[in-house]
Structures are given as C-alpha cells and as structure tokens.
Amino acid sequence: MTVYLDIVFLENILMNYIIVFATGVVIKNECKKLRLLIASVIGAIYTIVMYLEIIPIYSNFIMKFILSIVITYIAFNPKSLKKLIKNLIIFYLVSFVFGGCVFALMYFLKPQMAQIRNGVFVGAYPLKIALVGGIISFIIIQISFKLVKSKLSKKDMIYDIEVTLDNKSAKIKALLDTGNLLKDPITGYPVIVVEKASLRKIIPSNILNNSEKIIGGDISELICDSEFSKTISRFRVIPFSSLGKQNGLLLGIKPDSVNIKLDEKTEKLNNVIVGIYDKSFTKNGAYTAIFGIDMLEHDFAISSKELIAN
Fold this sequence. Notes:
It is a single chain. By secondary structure, the chain is an alpha+beta fold. The chain folds into 2 domains: about 5-150; about 155-310, no CATH class. It has helices at about 5-25, 35-50, 60-75, 80-110, 125-150, 205-210, 210-215, 225-230, 295, and strands spanning about 115, 120, 160-165, 170-175, 190-195, 235-240, 250-255, 255-260, 265-270, 275, 290, 310. Strand 6 (about 235-240) and strand 7 form a beta hairpin. The termini are far apart.
C-alpha cells in the first residue's frame, strides 16, 4: 500500500487541532488559533518521525509524555504549574475520548486498506474518520462536562441553617462558599455572612439599621436602648477584603447557636459569628447567607452527642 507522508502529515495536523481545540473549550481558555496550529504541527512532526522510525527513542513513553506537555504548554500558555497539570489532564481525557471514537468508527466502517504502523493510523478514509470522530467526541465531551458541572451547581451547595439568639430563631438559606475564610480575629471563630433583612426576626432594627455607627463607636443614641444594652456584649468587628470592597469592617454578633442541616441530620454549632451584610447576594433570593467550609470541618463543632435528628 502506498502511503503519502504529506497526506499523513496534514491529517495529523487536523486531528491534533481538533483535540487541542476541544481541550480549550473544556477548560474555557481563549486560545489563539496560531498557538493551536503550532502545537498541532509539532504533534504531526512527531508522528512522521515516529512512523518512519528515524530515531527509535521517539516512540517510548517518556518522549510521548514530554511531547504532550510541550503541546499543552504551547497551545494554552498556562501561567502556573497547577494550570499546566490541569490542562494536561483535560488534554489526555479529550485525547482518550477522541481515540475511542475513531477506533469505534474504524470497527463499524471497516475502511479498506487501513492499518496502524508504529502507532500511526494510515490508509483509506482516515481524514473522514477523523472529522466524524472529532465531532462525535466533541459532543460527548461537552455533554459529559455539563453533567458533571450540574452535579456541582450552586443548588447542591445551598444549606438550610437556623440562627438562634435570645430564644428567637431565623431560618436562612446559606451558600457554601469555599472562598469564604472570614474569621473573628480575636476568637478565631468562623463567620457566616447574612443579609440584614434575614436577621430582622432575631436582631432589633435599631441595631441592624445602625451597624456602621456601631462599628465606628458612635453609639450615643443607642446606649440607652435596653435591647442594645443587652446585645452589646455579643458584638464583634470583622475585617474583610471582599463583598465589593478592598478593605472593610463588618459588624458581627455572637448568636446562641447555628444549626446546619446536613443530609439526614442537623449539626448544632455554638462558636460561630454572624456578620451583618447590608446588601443582597442574589437578585432572586436563592440564598441570603454565605459560609465557609470551616463551619463543616473545623473542630469548633459540637461533639456527636449534640447532633440532633432531622
């Protein structure tokens, strides 16, 4: 069978381009077409060298792994080692799906005069199979990643919590935000940030409406209020660098307890600070509070004896 190396070269550029393009879509990288093309050409050159067995070492595992790193780096220009590893993993996943689709098409279509030599597929219809396989694998990858992301959507990270203060309680929808690392600088207790409107059942309005004055120490108008005097010992001032500000202060209050519903049980936490937030987190009110992973993992949680059935 006559094999034309220029055709094999062009076919491999196309197949490589499909793979790196699909990888870029998955990792949401705004790839430059020229970088994708250069990476695809390098992969195609390696394929020709491996096919002709010009240098035998080119076909071993280490060289193939190094090649994949080079292709990934050139195509996506990752700014850190962590991103490079992530891109490399996605590149391999896409390659495996693409390869599986191509070999499945070979099995069903059984192209004439097709063969594999030194790991390189040559023969009749490889270009058509690459195109069809690329389209099918791209669709499979898109659907698969959307399904995975849907399992990790915000809906699955919203918890029912109940804040109790002076025998009064407020039920709140709270989003688990892994980036929320707010803590009381004095006690080290984690902070759950709650919209002001969700706390009106348990915290007096004169406190909620004057949070900035309280932070600034301007409490002359409030000091005679019995509710304020009873709550003042619970106040905390929490520094933060988010929520729309580079640096700011948040008024916090130490509640009696916070109950978090976890699957079929409710965990009661004592050492938690509630931060009062003046704005809204969402337009649709899907959740009105955010809390960090520390509230689920930290050893401030009460012992298992204090877990109460749902």
